[in-house]
Amino acid sequence: MVVTGMGLITPIGNDIKTFWENVHKGKVGIGPIRNFDTSNYKAKLSAEVCDFEPTEYMSPKDAKRMDRFSQFAVAAAKQAVQDSGLELEQEDSYRMGVCVGSGVGSLMGIEREYDKLLAKGPGRIHPLSAPMVLGNMAAANIAMQFGFHGKCIDVVTACATGTNSVGEAFRSIQHGEADVILAGGVDSSVSRFGVATFQALTALSTSEDPLQASIPFDKKRDGFVTGEGAGVLVLEELEHAKARHARIYGEIGGYGATCDASHLTAPLENGEGAARAMTMAIEDAGLTPKDVDYINAHGTSTPMNDKYETIAIKRVFGEEAYRVKINSTKSMIGHLFGAGGAVELITCILSIDEGYVHQTVGLVDDDPDCDLDYTKDQGVYMPVNVAISNSLGFGGHNATVLVKKYSE
Asked: Is 159 a catalytic residue?
């Protein structure tokens, strides 16, 4: 199983080239929330997508029939398909699938239509309100845009959605259900209700300094920053890719998924669930922890997540945990919820391609509980042959995907 195309929409770039250039620069895509008045909110910052024009990727008519999260998903998917060089008219559409999940669907769309309901009555609701806000519509709209008739599913596992989506697509191709699947995640939920709910959980950073808000593994971290975006990868069966002489970015080697089955929001203190997911992915690839060069951590910048993820990594890697490079892309793009795992896996693939591991931006004051190598101060050029990406979702969902350098 190989990756032959990638596309993304993020707070630091709406294409692969711009995103990766800004990753190198350590650009932080966090700023004051623009979607609503935050006067009564403790959380003031978000990581929002800028300069996005949906009609660059779809017709104005189609754009009007999609909410923002679906527009992001279609845009990222179109980038990925174009990047892959697939000639769709030569493919069997029933062997082409979509597995793109959204953690929450469109909270902004629900708010918008609910405001109309209260102000003007039920007769003024948009006639397509229901299908526009449902989470599965990201995947459905992608399938409609390309005419894919194969498996089309929406995996929903909160913040693990993007990673589980890639993993389940991986399994589907392994089992012969498809030749190609567009896989990834998307979310756009920087909304009044969304921010209020996470704020009520005391999960959000209350910093008003964009450079000190999302600071994974730092002693002063106080919560995550809500973000939005999309990441989509073209996953392709190897022989199918070779037959059309596709460029291969990397090989998906393994996938692991577990559940803590313990708490609505808090990870297991001993890190066992996350550790098992990592171990499963590594063993699935026929590798050992010594083979892993780099971990793109879930790294949310919450006190509990970063501490317990560190414990989980130590459970898996033992003394090797102090050798492996670790970072958190969320230090630049905030928490993209369902999109996070997909964008972070793309980051792993770009790291393998270039031999570069980016810094964890904003990490200044080391937390004694987080004592591994989190790529502090600056990025590092180094061979990256094997990388894993972790995602941990509310409800105890743990997911890991392993990607490795492709060789004939």
From this structure: yes
